[in-house]
Task: structure prediction
Amino acid sequence: MSDETLKKYHSKRNFEKTPEPYGSKKTTKEPIFVVQKHNASHLHYDFRLEHNGVLLSWAVPKGFPEDTSVKRLAVRTEDHPLAYATFSGTIPAGNYGAGTVEIWDHGTFTYTGAKGMDAGLKDGELVFDLHGKKLKGGYALIRLKHPRGNPKNEEWLLLKTKEHS
Ligand code: MN
Result:
């Protein structure tokens, strides 16, 4: 993890006022994921995948799809430090993301794309198996070529790819 990759994360927060972590190193071997239920101005689920020492992050307003027929909007947000994966608590009013954060699910994941995760990010197609408590099995994130909302946001679709794992 470097301060450079987390510049945007750090710039949005005052660490004297928010209990959120500034950042730290991790110790486990398998890449981790976390889903945090964030009851902010709008309730959403923050989905984070470890990659290159940070947590790639998406805000998923409607949460995870329960079957393969459902696609859920996932808006890419700034990379977060690995230490954020264990964060839960209250971000005080007046701070970025003010509200409560609880860990909805967490675990490890296996990236299943043939070309690797860097190529997947570049191509806008990430495929992986989640090994969580609630979430198990195959999921995919597909970047929309034509975002529907704010053009500054990267919009992705979150899909369940396997009915059973
Ligand atoms: Mn959030």
